[in-house]
Structures are given as structure tokens and as C-alpha cells.
Amino acid sequence: MSTNPTPAGRQSPQVYRRRRLLVLLGLIAVIVAVVLIIVRPGASQGGEGTGPGTDASTPPTTAPADASTIPTEPTAADGDPCAEKNVLVEATTDKLEYQAGEQPQLSVTITNTGSNVCMLNVGTKVQVFTIKSGEEVYWTSTDCQVDPIDAEVSLQPGTPISSSVPIIWDRTRSSTETCDGPRESVPAGGASYHLGVSVAGFAADETKQFLLY
After folding, report:
1. Pairing of β 208-212 and β 191-199
2. Under a CB-based contact definition with an 8 Å cutoff, are residues 130 and 174 in contact?
3. How far is CA 100 from CA 183, 186, 192, in A?
4. Which residues of the chain, if any, have pLDDT below 70?
5. CA 102 to CA 99: how far, in whole Å?
6. 202 within 8 A of 87, measured Cβ to Cβ
7. Beta strands 127-133; 136-140: pairing state
8. What does DSSP assign to residue 170?
9. Of 141, 125, 145, which is closest to residue 75 (Cα–Cα)?
10. Parallel, antiparallel, or unpaired for β 208-212 and 97-98?
11. What's the pLDDT at 50?
């Protein structure tokens, strides 16, 4: 029986198949290596000393302060002062009606209605809350204020900032003569009151009405 030997200088088909397989495996290894470099497995797991998208050699950045609340510590800011026409001041309460024993929480919201960043002192030293019923003033926040502060902030256009800690009204009349003594409770039983507020001399256009029971 005769056979057909492979011509001289030419490899068998099995050799070519093995070579193609090796080339294919090498190409797959390169692709896998590139994918691993791009994806970086474990980078999103928050391992010790690292975080998502950070390099271990780069120190973490400090998180910015909450820009939506009024500072409770003295602060300073640079920039052009806010014009009165571009400052919207609003008085707010946590409820519209308060049952017996419930104490109103009073806050203020300030918005820069202009188109440019401006600087304004919004600290407790320049905040004045006033509660009236009819024409009678029952309570003023500055009567017995303790440790007021200046807090200058850069107001971003259209971004309101609000009190981070509301003022609690104990439903009593205030005066500078009663800061250390007992105070008279105000009328309740469905009595209507109005909260007004001003910041740095900029007063709210409207008061906030609420009822005491």
C-alpha cells in the first residue's frame, strides 16, 4: 500500500491548526489584559485607603459644607454684597396648627433671585423673628438672644438656604425684662398668629400665619 508523504518544506494541517490556536489564545490574553486595566476589578469595593475612582497615593478631598443651610458658626465670604432687590426672605414654620403643648419651630429661607453670586451676612446676629397677632407684638427673637454670630455666605443664584436649626417658640410673651424669669403664656384656643422675619435688614414680603390651640 502506497502513501502520499507531505511535500518537503510544507507543514501538516495539524501544525497549522495548532499555530492558529496559539495565535488566537494570545490575542484573547491581550484583550483580557486590556479589559482588566480599564475595569480595574476591586476599585469600586471601597477597600481600605481607597475609594471609587481614587488612587491610593492621592489624599481624599474634604467634603464641601452643606450649601443649603445657614451656618451655625461664624463664617466669612468675599464678593459683591447682595442688592436688596435680589434677596428673597421667607418666614417658615414646621406646621400650620399647633395643639396644646406643641411648640412652633421657626425658620427662615433666603434666596438670591439675581443672576450673579453675591455675599450676605445671614447669621443670627442679623436675624430678627417677630410674632404678632393683629397689631400686637407678642414675641421677638432678639429680646433675649444669646451668643449671636455673623455668618457671611456667598449666595448662589436661585439656590435657597434655610435655617439648619429652627428657633423653638415656647408660646410666651417676650421682653428684655423677662429673660431670666417666668413669662406669660400667649392666648391659644385657635388664636391666629403671624411670623415675620428679616435678615440683614431685608424683610420678608409676607408673614407666615399659624394657629395655636
Report:
1. antiparallel
2. no
3. 17, 12, 14
4. 1-18, 30, 33-66
5. 6
6. yes
7. antiparallel
8. -
9. 125
10. parallel
11. 34
